[in-house]
Amino acid sequence: MASAAPPVSLPDEATLLRAVQAAVRAPSVYNSQPWRWRVDRKAGIDLFADRDRHLITIDSGGRDLLLSCGAALAHLVVALAGLGLSAQVDRFPDPEDSDHLARVRPTEATPTETQVADLARLAPAILLRRTDRRRFAAAPVDPHLLDTLVTHADRCGADLYVVTGATARTRLIETIARSASLQRQQAGYGAELARWTGRYSAAADGIESSTIAAGIDLPGDVPMRRFTAGRLRQPTHSLEHADASVLMVLSARSDDRLGTLRAGEAVGAVLLAATGMGLATTPLSQPLEVARTRDWVSEHLVGAAVFPQLVIRVGWPDEHAAALPPTLRRGADHVLLRKP
Ligand SMILES: Cc1cc2nc3c(=O)[nH]c(=O)nc-3n(C[C@H](O)[C@H](O)[C@H](O)COP(=O)(O)O)c2cc1C
Q: Which fold has domain 143-315?
């Protein structure tokens, strides 16, 4: 007679809520936090897209929204691993509800689950990660660290292309600048940007001005999205040296919502891994939000076999760079859905 399988031990609801609290530290476009969560001890944790927080001008197709939710999903899985839990992830579990992005079933991890231990190592980075829009140090990033980031993306089912060579970098920078100029001419762009940025310091969403560069200071040769009312100063003396940041393009392996969600998970994993290595990062979505510049990235950088989603700038923080404050998030009462 076959022996009965040992009962699966389910974590309590307070533990699941702690994991959700960590997951919402994920980056999101304009800090829009376009997610809703439902927590149930037996069913697990459900992640839904929040269409009310969709940025319809810059993100008409919903790519940034899905990437942001994917990043939050990756943060959730890492947070669960940090709590000693393994997670079974079912993406798009409900064919009748395309906004139901994932159902995550956490169970106690066994000591032999090396994957959980690997993910748990990323957990401390959840509270440390910031979007850093300042000039980075002049020291180059070692290629083996970039290879590790490529491996993290690959494990999530996405591609990370490291832009090498001065010509490719210059042309991508020109493409970012072109996308910014095309967006500024787009009807509604300025209004949407103004609605979500230059927020006062206690705002629980949107981009707060202390994280945006002040005046006309540039962080180096890579153009940042131009937000309003920046108060962030460049590190002392950093304008005297070159910024040795590396640009990378994260791409999906399929041109559909599943591919984009997985790419978002890769965004989360790559940013956490980079933070864990002590690197500073900036996600830059402008060149992929504009069809003409996205086509250029496809054709000239990543190739037709994958689908570019996000540019990520990575580098060593300047030695004089002050620690950035964490950007705020909406409280649990705003993001939690009631059980059905
Ligand atoms: C899909 C996506 C697109 C983003 N695009 C940009 C961008 O174009 N420019 C930028 O400065 N930050 C961008 N960000 C970073 C967000 O503005 C940032 O995550 C948010 O303001 C929260 O701040 P934090 O990352 O420091 O927690 C993007 C983030 C995500 C996930």
A: NADH Oxidase (3.40.109)
